[in-house]
Amino acid sequence: MAAGSTRRAFLTRVARYSALATAGGMAWSWVLGLSRDTAFAFRPPGALEEAAYQGACIKCGLCVEACPYNTLALTGAGETGTPGIPRFVPRETPCYMCTDVPCARACPTGALDKKVEIQQARMGLAVLSDQETCLAFLGLRCEVCYRVCPLIDKAITLRYRSQARTGAHAFFEPVVNSDACTGCGMCEHACVLEEAAIKVFPRALAKGKASRTYRMGWKEPSGVSRDFKPGDAVQPPGENRESSRKSLERALKGLEDVEGLYD
């Protein structure tokens, strides 16, 4: 092959690999940007999982028009998130939990579940993120987040704790119950502090996950057979001693084998 042809083939390969690397870098940057921009994006009630929601939403704005409280808005250019995708900001305007969920009913593509019941919606999870500034934890009777909660005494309850400093007063501390909280954001919106002490977070960021190795005996049926009797697991004293003696002999034999390696 001539030198010119070899050089052209080499440059062609370099150009091809450079194009692939550039395309891959752009795709990865887009993925990272998407995950960053949507990490704290709050969607209308009934929204699918984020990836499915982004794929199904056609940015028509019908859910925004159907919302009677102007809670929803399409993400604009320069704002955090994917442009044109509906979202809401709890601190500015929360979801007022319309019982007929008009935003979901208006969705033409299924990005929002038309059959969702508003009390079963899971837009996020309220978290008391700063007890040091929360007035209730400072000993003042605030209770604003508790009072505005549309699922009062379900999603947010009050925990009473005596105040040792005075001996005559009590703390009334808000407690969020994750099994009932819809993430509507009314508590965050109503918080009287300059920066809310209670905030809504995406549930995936707010919730932990216990390992399956842990079993809650008061929640799950016992795995012990009905035929089991406590005495069945107890060996007679003589058998216990014999078992312990054999275990000790095996351990000593193992030590001797290890020492033999260094002789």
Structure description:
- It is a single chain.
- The protein is α+β, with helices and mostly antiparallel strands.
- Among the domains are: 42-121, Alpha-Beta Plaits (2-Layer Sandwich); 124-204, Alpha-Beta Plaits (2-Layer Sandwich), CATH 3.30.70.
- It is 35% helix and 10% strand.
- The protein contains eight helices and six strands, in the order H-H-H-E-E-H-E-H-E-E-H-E-H-H.
- Strand 4 and strand 5 form a beta hairpin.
- It is extended, with a radius of gyration of 30 Å.
- 22% of the residues are buried.
- Residues 25-36 have low confidence and may be disordered.
Short description:
The protein has helices spanning 3-38, 50-56, 62-66, 102-106, 144-148, 186-190, 203-206, 237-260; strands spanning 73-74, 86-87, 125-128, 156-162, 170-176, 198-201. It is built from eight helices and six strands; from the N terminus they run H-H-H-E-E-H-E-H-E-E-H-E-H-H. A hairpin with a 7-residue loop joins strand 4 (156-162) and strand 5.
The beta-strand count equals 6
**Average pLDDT score:** 81
SSE order in H/E notation?
Answer: HHHEEHEHEEHEHH
What is the general shape? Answer: extended
Lay out the secondary structure.
Layout: H1 3-38, H2 50-56, H3 62-66, E1 73-74, E2 86-87, H4 102-106, E3 125-128, H5 144-148, E4 156-162, E5 170-176, H6 186-190, E6 198-201, H7 203-206, H8 237-260
Antiparallel strand pairs: 1-2, 3-6, 4-5
